């Protein structure tokens, strides 16, 4: 794909638009390589998406030098979600093309608890009750990330 074609794909990408500040998102954390924000249609409050800033469509396309930093961020967010929301664990997943709703690599980090109702891969979405609830959850996650980074 030519450089112009890649730029055209990225400019049409919802996640690239969020990264560029052209679309709103409840940002939780960011690094030079990635952005973390709340999923607009979460499985549970605190469901985050971790995306690379560079437009790559799948995990297969993620350049080797970014794999370590990207998945270190995924691990940090998994810990933050569990800590901030007092969850017993987390679910971490990425679709590669099939069932990938946005063609930009994104890893879901979802807080989990025993008997939380998730069964298999047929999960109901539970939207935030309000923007205030989403912002409060985002704030808790941001505090948790900072606490974890500070040790």
Total separate domains:
1
The major β-sheet equals:
5 strands, antiparallel
**Helix content bin:** 25-40%
**What is the C-level CATH assignment?**
Alpha Beta
Strand order, biggest sheet? 1-2-3-5-4
The named CATH superfamily: HIT-like
**What's the helix-strand series?**
HHEEEHEEH
Mean pLDDT: 91
Uncertain stretches of 5 or more adjacent residues = none
Which of globular, elongated, flat, extended, rod-shaped describes the shape? Answer: globular
Structural class comes to alpha+beta
Number of helices: 4
The strand count comes to: 5
Q: So, CATH architecture?
A: 2-Layer Sandwich
Could you explain the architecture of this structure?
The structure is a single chain. This protein is of the alpha+beta class and 151 residues long. It has one domain (25-150): HIT family, subunit A (2-Layer Sandwich), CATH 3.30.428.10. It contains 4 helices and 5 strands, in the order ααβββαββα. The chain has a 5-stranded antiparallel beta sheet with strand order 1-2-3-5-4. Strand 1 and strand 2 (34-38) form a beta hairpin. The radius of gyration is 15 Å and the shape is globular. It starts with a helix and ends with a helix. The mean pLDDT is 91.
